[in-house]
Sequence to fold (1045 residues):
Amino acid sequence: MGSRASRLLREEEIEEIKKETGFSHSQITRLYSRFTSLDKGENGTLSREDFQRIPELAINPLGDRIINAFFPEGEDQVNFRGFMRTLAHFRPIEDNEKNKNPSATEPLNSRTNKLLFAFRLYDLDRDDKISRDELLQVLRMMVGVNISDEQLGSIADRTIQEADTNGDSCISFNEFIKASFVVNIHICTVVFSFLS
Amino acid sequence: MATLWRFTLFLCMLLMACGGLSLASQEAETRNTQTETGTGSSSNTTGGGGHEAAPITTLPIVTWKWHHISVQYLVALWVLVCWLCKLIIEANHNVTNYIPESALLICSGFILGGMIWGADKMQTFSLSPTVFFYFLLPQIILDSGYHMPNKLFFTNLGAILVHAVIGTCWNAASLGLSLWGCHMGGAMGDLDIGLLQYLLFGSLMAAVDPVAVLAVFDQVHVNEVLFIIVFGESLLNDGVTVVLFNVFDAFVSLGGGRINAAEIVKGIVSFFVVAFGGSLVGIAFGILIALLTRCTKNIQIIEPGFIFVMGYLSYLTAEMLSLSAILSTTFCGVLCQKYVRANMDESSVQTVKYAMKVFANGSETIIFVFLGISAIDKVIWVWNTGFILLTLLFIFVYRFIGVFFLQWILNRYRLVPIELIDMVIMSYGGLRGAVAYGLAVLLDENKIKEKNLMICTTLIVVYFTVILQGITMKPLVMWLKVKRAEVTEVSLLEKMTNKMFNHTLVAIEDISGQIGDNYFRSKWRHFEEKWMTPLLMKPSARKKQDEVFDVFHQLNLKDAMEYVTEGERSGSLEFVRNDSAILDFKKKLESEYTEVIPDIPPYMINNHGAMFTMGRDPIPSVSLEMHEQTMKAMREAEAVNAHHLLDQHLYKSRKQYRHGFSRSDFKINRDEKEVQEIFQRTMRNRLESFKSAKMGVSPPKTIVKHSKKEQQEKIPNGKSMSKTKLCHSGDEDFEFSEGDSASGYDSSYPSFSMRATYRPGGGIENPAFVPDLYPTDLLQIPPWLAESEPDSSMVAPSLRAQANLPNSPMEMRRMGLLRTSTRSTDTKQMNNDQFPPPPTPPPPPSGHM
Fold:
C-alpha cells in the first residue's frame, strides 16, 4: 500500500511537504495512502463528506468543528498539502528543531500554533475573539445533557472573567495564550510513531 | 512545648519501666526479642493462666491481674507512645519543614530504645518480622492501593514495571556481585560469606520500600508522574524481592554445588507465578469486595469493615499461597476502589477513606519508631567498615546507574520523556525501609553466619536512606528545580481547552487512521462496560450518582460562586456572614430541589449542608494562622467545586480518564450514553447543514450557529419541549440544546436505568429487557426526529435515515464496537451501514451513496 501511494506522490512534492510540515518521508507516504483511501471522489481532494464518512468523528463532540478546521476559509475542498499542514499542528514539539533555525518562520507544531488551532475551534466568526456566545456553543457541545443552561452560562461568564484582562468581555488570542499557560501542550500532540 | 516534652518523657519512662520490668521478670530466660505485639502471646497467656489457677482463700474485691492483659496492654501502650511521638513531632512545624517526619520518628525511636536499654540492659522490644508483615504492613499497602490514582498508574505501568522488575534484579545482582568481588579482593577482612549469601543479601537490599518512599515523597510534592513511577516501583517490586529472596534463600540452603540449570529455570518460573499469582489473588478479592458491597445496603454500619477484612484476607491468602502479598493487596485496592465508591453509601465511603488513613498512617508511625528502637541493641551491632560502607556506596551508585540506564531506554518510547533532573530524583528516592529490615531479620542464622552483620548493615542503609536522603531530598528538589506537583489551579478556560485538545486529538487520530495508544484501554473499557460495571455496581448506585451528585455539584458551584463574591466584598469577616448565607442557601436548595426531584433523599441534602457548615468553620477563628489556613482551604475547595461541575459533565474523549486523586467523586461510566448523545447531535447538525446548504446559506464555519437559530424558531412546535425536565430552564440561548437533551434522555431510557427516575413510575429497568422495550421506545419517537418533522415540508430525513439512526442502545453498542474495530481501509463499507445517509430531497453529496 505504501509503495503504491508513493508512486502517486512525486518525490519533489514529498520534499516540499517535508520541509513545510516536518513529517518524515515514510510518514508522508503513509498519510498519503490514508488520504487516498479517504478520498472517495478520487479527485485528489477531500470534501467535507469524505471526512464525515469517518465513523469515529460522528461520535466526537467536536468532530464537525475539527473537520472544518481542515478547510481554508471559504473553500470546501482540501488537497493533500493542506491536509498535511493541518495534521502538522499535532506533531510533537521538538526542541532541536527550534534551535536549528530560530530565524525561520515558526513551525506548525509550535506551542503558539497549537494554541491557535484550538483558538480557531472556538472562534467561529474568525474575528480573533472568543465571545461569550462562541464559548457557550463550545461548552454546550462538550458537556453532557444534564447540566443546566444557567450553569453553563455562569461557567462561561466565569471563564471569560478569568481570562479577560482588557475588560471587553471577549477573549482575544493573546489573552487566550496567557490564560492557557498551564495547558499541557504535550497532550496536544499525536504520536505519529506508528508512521515512522 | 517543653512541658509537653517532659511529660511525654516521663510517661515513656514510666511505661518502659513497668513494661520492661514485668516482661524481663517473666521472659528473662527466653531472652528473645519477639515481644512487641502478639508474638509473645503464647508464653504470656500460659503464664497468666497459671496465675489464675492459684486457689483463693477469700473473695477478692480487687485483684491485680497484670498477666491477663499484659500483652494487649503493652500493644496498646506502644501504639499510644508511637502516636504521641508523632504528635510531638508534628507540633514542631519549623522542624518538620526541614526534616521529614519519618526521619524524626526514627530518631524518637532511638530515644525510646535508649530508655528501654537503660532500664533493661537489653532490647526487649524490637520490630519482629511477623508483626511487621502481618500487622503493620497490610493496611499501608491496602491504603496505597485503594487510593491509587488509577489513570496515572496505568499510563505509567510500563515504566513502573521496567523499573520494578529489571531495576530490582539489577540492584540485587550488582550489589551482591560487587560485594563479593570486593570480598575476594580482600576489602572486608575475614568474613564468612559466600557468593550466594551475598546475592541473598543483595536481593533483600534491592527493593525500594513503599513505606519510606511514601513518607518522604508525600512531603516533597514532586510532580505526579515522577511520584507514581517511584511509588509504583516500590509497590510492585515486592513481587521481585520476594522471589529473589526465596530463590536465593533456597539456593543458600541447597549449597552451591546443587544448583543447576533446572533450579535456575524454576527460579525464573517462580517469579512469574509469584507475581501474577499474587496479582490474580488480589483481583479476585477486589471483585469479591465489589460484589459484597453491592448487597450491604442493609448493614450500612459495618459496610466499611468489609473492605478492610477482605483486603486483609487478600494479603493473607496470597501469603498462604506463598505469592506476593503486597501485589495482591495493591491490586485488590486498585480494582475495588471504583466500584466500592459507587456502591457504598457516601458516609461509608468517607469512613473507609478516613479509617484507611488512620490505620495506614498509624502503622507507618509505629514502623518508623520501631525501626529506631530496634537499633538500640548491642547484639546486632557487628561492625565491619568495609562491608557496611561498600554496601552503602554500591546501593547508591547502582541505583543511579540502573535508573539512568533504564530510563534512558524508556525515554525513547515516551511521549514526554523523563528529564535528567527527574531521573536524579528518581534515583535519589530509592529509599530502603522496613521491608528490607524485616527480610534481614528473617534470615536463618544457621545458614548465614553473618546474619547480625547483615541486619546491622540493613539498618544503617535504612537510616542512611531515610534520614539522610530524606532530609536532603527537599533541598535537592528545590535546588534542581524539579517540576513540582502543580498546585496552581487550572483556569476554566484551560480546562476547556485541555478537553478540547483531547477531543481534537482523538479526531486527528481517527482522521489519520491510526490505532492510538489507547487502543487497549478502549478495549478494556468496553469489557468493563459490558461485564464489570453491570456485575459489580449496583444499579441504584449509578442512579444515585447521576442525580444526587448532579445536584450536589450544582450546589457546590453556586455556593462557591456566592462565596467568592461575598468573600471579595467583605474581606476577612465573611465567615460569620457566610454561615447564615449557607443556611439560607441550604433552605433554598431544599425547597427548590426537593420539589423538582422528589427522589433526592432529604438526608443527602442535610448531610451536605452539614458538611458545608463543618468545612466552613462558622466560628470566626481568633488565631491568624488558623484563619489563614481555613481561608486557603476554602479557596481550594472553591476552586475544586467550580471545576467539579465541568469535570463531571465534560464529555470524556476516548483518550481521557480522570485519575482518582479526588476522593469525593465517584465517576461512573456514562460513555455509552455520551456517545449516543454526541452522535445524535452530530447527525442533527449535519442534517441542518444540508438544509442550510440547500437554502443557499452555506458558509461552513457557521454551521452550528445556523442550526441553532433554526432550532430556536422550531422549538415551539417541537414535542420535545414538554419532555425537558429538571433544570432546563428554557433559556433562549439554548433552545438548541433542549432538543438534544431530550433526545439524550429518551433514547437512553431502556438501557440506562439511572435515567429511569426521570420518568414518573418508570422504576428501575432490567437491562435484560432491553430487546422488549425497544419497540415501545421506537413508538416514542425520538425527539431528534420529532423535531425535524415540522420542517418535513422542506427537508425530511429519508426512511433509511430514520431506520438507521441508532437510537437503541443495542445499535449504539454495535456502533461502539465498530469504532474500535474499524480501520482505515474498511470505513466505506461500514459507513453505509452506520450512517443515516443525507436526506433524500437534497441531492446526495458526490460520491457518498
